[in-house]
């Protein structure tokens, strides 16, 4: 129950008691005055009537006072309600926007000032995290590039190495490649959070991108004996960055293949629906647990199945996919149950002239 509801309940109870008291006192006053009229002289009757009317007028003011008090209480609570609604809209992207203060120097005004101070500290913390992640990612790129180059050279000259040594070199190379992908993904997301990623805005034939992603999925699925099909591909266009949209689709089809069962199926479909391009990718994997589904777009979130099977990945692919969809004024949703997982991406269609 909200504070306003509690106050309304308590104030309503006070009003009922007050009205009952007024009614009772008024009735008692009238009945008493009628009895007194029989006992007093006619000369005093006018004075008694004046007293009775005065008492009734005073009693009648009590409801007016209660209503006025309720109005003042609601008006006093309105800044608190406005503050609560404003605080609910706060997110990591608008921490620098201060909450409007009443200027009354009351409790609500001091609470607003405390929220503004807290938001400023949070914004500084987020900025430090972004800067640290960006700088760390940048510093890691150079040694990883050097390590990858040296490992490539070692693999080319691995003719005199034993099979165990070659396997060790291949394993090291794979790990360096994985670290490089993580660093690139972190750099991209950090720049996106800071608004430093520039995206192109031009017409993109989405049907063409889906067909290219279908071919990519077939190549990725071949070693796993996964069957890939394209059930529908509408010829639609959107406004956006072709490179980013292709990255979005590649991340999704890669996940659909990796998180699938052997000899499973992956189905792609592109259709137009009420001014929106709808891309749907389904697979026949084990599914995502209900506990994990609300967190699948969080960073570094991976299911137990991925860890148990040592599936290649770092838990950033869906985060990047969500960012790309939102950057194109679209959305991405995942629904999953045992044996079926579906990812639906919706993007606004380009307006044809």
Give an overview in words:
By secondary structure, the protein is α+β, with helices and mostly antiparallel strands. The strands form two sheets. A five-stranded mixed beta sheet has the order 2-4-5-7-6, covered by helices on one side. A two-stranded antiparallel sheet has the order 1-3. It contains eight helices and seven strands. It is elongated, with a radius of gyration of 35 Å. About 60% of the residues lie in helices and about 15% in strands. Helix 5 packs parallel to helix 6 (about 240-260) and helix 6 runs antiparallel to helix 8.
List the uncertain runs. Answer: none
Helix count from the secondary structure assignment: 8
Mean pLDDT: 81
The class by helix and strand makeup works out as alpha+beta
> Helix fraction?
55-70%
What can be said about the biggest beta sheet? 5 strands, mixed
Rg (C-alpha, Å)? 35 Å
Give the strand line-up of the largest sheet: 2-4-5-7-6
Q: Identify the overall geometry.
A: elongated
CA(first)-CA(last) distance: 53 Å
């Amino acid at each position: 129950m909200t504070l306003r509801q509690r106050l309304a309940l308590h104030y309503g109870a006070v009003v009922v008691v007050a009205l009952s008291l007024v009614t009772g006192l008024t009735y008692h006053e009238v009945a008493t005055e009628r009895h007194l009229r029989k006992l007093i002289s006619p000369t005093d009757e006018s004075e008694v009537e004046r007293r009775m009317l005065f008492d009734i007028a005073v009693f009648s003011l009590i409801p007016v006072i209660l209503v006025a008090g309720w109005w003042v209480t609601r008006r006093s609570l309105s800044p608190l309600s406005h503050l609560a609604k404003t605080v609910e809209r706060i997110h990591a992207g608008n921490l620098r926007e201060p909450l409007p203060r009443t200027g009354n120097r009351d409790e609500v005004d001091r609470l607003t000032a405390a929220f503004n101070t807290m938001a400023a500290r949070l914004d500084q913390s987020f900025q430090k995290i972004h800067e640290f992640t960006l700088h760390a990612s940048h510093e890691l790129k150079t040694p990883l590039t050097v390590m990858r180059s040296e490992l490539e050279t070692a693999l080319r000259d691995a003719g005199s190495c034993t099979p165990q040594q070659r396997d060790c070199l291949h394993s090291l190379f794979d790990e360096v490649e994985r670290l490089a992908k993580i660093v690139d993904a972190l750099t991209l997301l950090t720049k996106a959070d800071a608004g430093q990623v520039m995206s192109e805005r031009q017409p993109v034939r989405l049907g063409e991108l889906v067909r290219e992603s279908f071919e990519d999925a077939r190549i990725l699925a071949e070693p796993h004996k996964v069957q890939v099909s394209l059930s529908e591909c509408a010829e639609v266009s959107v406004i956006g960055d072709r490179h980013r949209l292709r990255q979005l689709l590649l991340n999704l089809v890669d996940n659909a293949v990796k998180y699938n069962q052997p000899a499973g199926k992956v189905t792609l479909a592109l259709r137009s629906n009420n001014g929106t391009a709808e891309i749907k990718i389904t697979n026949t994997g084990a599914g995502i647990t209900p506990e994990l589904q609300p967190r699948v777009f969080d960073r570094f979130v991976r299911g137990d199945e991925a860890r148990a099977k040592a599936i290649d990945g770092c838990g950033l692919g869906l985060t990047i996919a969500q960012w790309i969809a939102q950057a194109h004024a679209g959305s991405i949703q995942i629904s999953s149950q045992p044996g079926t997982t579906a990812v639906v991406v919706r993007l606004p269609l380009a307006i044809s002239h």
